[in-house]
């Protein structure tokens, strides 16, 4: 069956353009809405339509496109962007399928592709028994083909995208980014933080060595990005400062008196908020200054394999913690936040009542999630894009999703 795909915003890379070309080659119709100069620069698969208005007019605009092109499928990255919500709401009313891309639930060799929504809007079940039964019907997955490093390619695509946005005031005058901070402000923060990280690596390595050689238990709190929709939309926390405050207050009152809390900064944090200094100030306020370690860098698998437990909101680090069989509490609603994988009690109780995850259940969960929502590929490097596009086409054109087949 020939389908009509409407592409909205993707990642800052050629991924969507390559995917659109591939679908065209398969005989499907492809239309793309460009919202800014970066979108236009990265799309060269034809069928582009510019939207130069504001969010308020998008529902009527999408309605016209759906009707004119007989749209059967919408493809987008990030289901919480303001320019995407009207398209998703309209698609639900008109029985148009929505395919949502996101960074992988299991990294680094996977990207996420789900119908209807991702993360907090994922349609993945929350019933552990369902995963036990569904796992009998799917293959056993390893770690996927390696993609190699992608940071340089990602940075280059991102800079190019935002350079092309410099003319938006003339060509797309009403466009407003979904990001809370401008790209150029983030870039300046990255430059400053990079000098600090270079100095911190040796200090952090020494701190990690002491943690491993010490007899004291330590808990890991990996920070996420304030700008991430996982925090802004799918959690009760507004910032990582708010998260640190609540976790440290609970840790000070309920954890063992000799336990240590390790706070690790996100590797892509732009450094606009001084999380290290704030962590030390909070530790002093709660009387645990000698029991807090703040890390700017550090080998995450080493930390996870030695941690007594892990506290997260809904980070993909939670999935890595489960790989390492670490007791885990999720303060948000991630896809892995199900009984048997994460602690279901309160944070206050977690410090002394935690238990390791059911690893049999986790292996079932992982295989099913990879089978139904993960694509072995990436958004940024040539190799990753080629792999991701090739494996996406069948998922996008299938009559039923892999999850529907299992349900």
TrEMBL record:
It comes from the Bacteria. Pfam families: Capsule_synth. InterPro entries: Capsule_polysaccharide_synth. GO terms for biological process: polysaccharide biosynthetic process; polysaccharide transport. This is Capsular biosynthesis protein. It comes from Allopusillimonas soli. The lineage of its organism: Bacteria, Pseudomonadati, Pseudomonadota, Betaproteobacteria, Burkholderiales.
């Amino acid at each position: 069956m020939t389908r009509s795909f409407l592409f909205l915003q993707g990642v800052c890379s050629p991924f969507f353009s390559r995917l659109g070309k591939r679908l065209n080659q398969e005989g499907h119709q492809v239309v793309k809405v460009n919202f800014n100069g970066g979108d236009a620069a990265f799309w060269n698969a034809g069928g582009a339509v510019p939207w130069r208005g504001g969010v308020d007019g998008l529902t009527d605009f999408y309605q016209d496109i759906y009707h004119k092109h007989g749209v059967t499928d919408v493809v987008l990255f990030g289901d919480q962007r303001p320019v995407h919500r009207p398209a998703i709401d309209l698609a639900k009313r008109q029985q148009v399928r929505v395919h949502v891309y996101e960074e992988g639930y299991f990294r680094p060799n996977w990207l996420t592709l789900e119908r209807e929504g991702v993360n907090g809007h994922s349609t993945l079940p929350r019933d552990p028994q369902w995963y036990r039964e569904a796992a009998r019907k799917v293959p056993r997955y390893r770690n996927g083909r390696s993609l190699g490093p992608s940071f340089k390619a990602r940075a280059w695509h991102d800079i190019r995208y935002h350079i092309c946005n410099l003319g938006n005031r003339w060509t797309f005058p009403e466009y407003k980014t979904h990001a809370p901070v401008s790209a150029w402000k983030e870039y300046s923060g990255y430059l400053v933080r990079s000098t600090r990280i270079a100095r911190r690596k040796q200090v952090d390595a020494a701190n990690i060595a002491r943690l491993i050689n010490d007899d004291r238990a330590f808990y890991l709190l990996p920070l996420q990005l304030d700008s991430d929709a996982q925090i802004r939309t799918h959690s009760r926390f507004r910032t990582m400062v708010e998260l640190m405050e609540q976790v440290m207050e609970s840790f000070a009152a309920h954890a063992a008196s000799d336990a240590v809390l390790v706070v690790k900064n996100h590797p892509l944090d732009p450094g606009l908020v001084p999380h290290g200094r704030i962590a030390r100030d909070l530790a002093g306020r709660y009387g645990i200054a000698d029991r807090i370690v703040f890390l700017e860098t550090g080998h995450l698998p080493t930390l996870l394999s030695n941690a007594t437990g892990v506290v997260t909101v809904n980070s993909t680090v939670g999935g890595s913690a489960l790989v390492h069989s670490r007791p885990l509490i999720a303060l948000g609603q991630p896809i892995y936040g199900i009984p048997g994988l994460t602690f279901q009690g309160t944070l206050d109780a977690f410090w002394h009542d935690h238990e390791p995850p059911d690893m049999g259940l986790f292996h079932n969960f992982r295989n099913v999630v990879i089978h139904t929502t993960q694509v072995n590929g990436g958004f940024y490097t040539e190799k990753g894009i080629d792999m991701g596009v090739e494996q996406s086409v069948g998922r996008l054109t299938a009559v039923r999703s892999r999850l529907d087949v299992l349900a």
